[in-house]
Amino acid sequence: MARSSREAADTMRILKYAIVLCGALWLAGVSLHAQTPSKAISPPSPDLTERQQRGRALVIQRCSLCHLDHLPRPRTSYAPTLKGLLENATPDDEKAIRNYIVKGGAKMPSFQYGLRSSQIDDIIAFLKTY
Fold first, then answer.
1. Do 53 and 111 have their domain in common?
2. Which end of the chain is more exposed for a tag (fewer CB within 10 A), N or C?
3. Are residues 62 and 119 both part of a single domain?
4. Residue 124 is part of a domain; what is its CATH number?
5. What is the rounded CA–CA span in Å between residue 61 and residue 53?
6. Contact of 126 with 59, CB cutoff 8 Å
7. Rounded to an integer, what distance in angstroms lies between the CA atom of residue 78 and that of residue 69?
8. Quick one: 64 and 24 in the same domain?
9. Quick one: pLDDT at residue 75?
């Protein structure tokens, strides 16, 4: 049985809405499936503060896709590792990283609408320990 052009248009409209919804959920950090712990990511360290633990979770959830550092080398990299990024950082270094997270760059997306200021604080707190 052939579909009418109206049925085809309705199907395409529903498909477009589904794609937009999935994209919006992805940007919001919502998972549509049960999350299972990754073997490549170690469990939270008891040495981290609550803020650093939250920052670690955000880095795993929002940053690790591009900034993976637990894969064997050589590998194709979208972005540099975050390990040691804020080691011995000055307040100006932290401000520069915060600005880069908020505004993005040539190869990095902006997170000004995807992360709250407190979440960025948590990420920076974790990166100081990483």
1. yes
2. N
3. yes
4. 1.10.760.10
5. 12
6. yes
7. 11
8. no
9. 58
For residue 118, pLDDT beyond 90: yes
Q: Residue 125: how many CB atoms within 10 A of its CB?
A: 20
Q: How far apart, in whole angstroms, are the C-alpha atoms of residue 111 and residue 91? A: 20
pLDDT at 8 over 70: yes
pLDDT in tens, 46-94: 789 999 999 999 998 999 888 876 655 555 667 888 888 999 999 999 9
Give yes or no: residues 20 and 79 share one domain.
no
Q: Is residue 81 domain-resident? A: yes
Euclidean distance between CA atoms 123 and 21, whole angstroms: 27
Query: Which secondary-structure segment (H or E) carries 58?
Result: helix 50-58
Structural domain harbouring 23: 1-32
Query: Which pair of structure tokens corresponds to residue 102?
Result: 């908020």
Helix orientation angle between 117-127 and 91-103, rounded to the nearest 10 degrees: 130
